[in-house]
Amino acid sequence: DQQVKQNSPSLSVQEGRISILNCDYTNSMFDYFLWYKKYPAEGPTFLISISSIKDKNEDGRFTVFLNKSAKHLSLHIVPSQPGDSAVYFCAASEETSGSRLTFGEGTQLTVNP
Amino acid sequence: KAGVTQTPRYLIKTRGQQVTLSCSPISGHRSVSWYQQTPGQGLQFLFEYFSETQRNKGNFPGRFSGRQFSNSRSEMNVSTLELGDSALYLCASSSRTGGSYTFGSGTRLTVV
Questions:
Q1: For chain B, what percent of residues have pLDDT higher than 70?
Q2: Do B31 and A105 touch (CB under 8 A)?
Q3: Which residues in chain A have Cβ-Cβ distances shorter than 8 Å to B102?
């Protein structure tokens, strides 16, 4: 039962353009969502998060949008840079489970110069 | 400040053996979680410790266990290793349960 899904295993964009990574979830109890970036041979690095009381959170080039009715969130990266090339994971948790993060399968983003 | 440190980085073990992995969280962080990453299953939650108590446990067999010490350092142990236990084991720490977690670089375990 995959409660968090990232349906695109890969995404390729040109440098300077927008990257949009998508994530869907099924568990309506999830109330906190995070995006992590992962390079090979390293652990995931926290990027940005959003709680269910908001629909948007912005941090520099990164913006996360949450659509609770659709159980969908997305990560926008503008402008995309070659150094953004990595695997991006979305993760979700529910307050009652505390730290337990449920991860999506990841999307490999490639930003071409 | 220093990040999350996991040792060893790489490990090769034989089926049937046991293994212990170590994690030193960021100073001041009291919550430590463990995840298993495999190509087929992605990142899966193993368990979380907070102030030496296991607060949460994922759906893994009893062969997987862990503990946390008074200085917040944590160990996880896998007994009777199986080939399917080959994975990247990641530790993450946080100043509180919930919220964002800082991950270590992981321990790559290979069972032969």
A1: 96
A2: no
A3: 46
CA distances from A52 to A95, A99, B35, B94 (A): 11, 16, 24, 20
Instruction: Tell me, yes or no, if B45 comes closer than 8 A to chain A by beta carbon.
Output: yes
Place of tokens 């994530």: A23
Distance between CA B28 and CA B96 in Å, rounded?
10
Q: Which residues of chain A have pLDDT under 50?
A: none
Closest by CA position to A34, among listed A101, A81, A106 = A101
| Separation CA B48–CA B66 (nearest Å) | 9
Residue B40 has pLDDT above 80, yes or no: no
Contact B97 A99 (CB under 8 A): yes
Give residue B97's pLDDT band: very low, low, confident or very high (50, 70, 90).
low
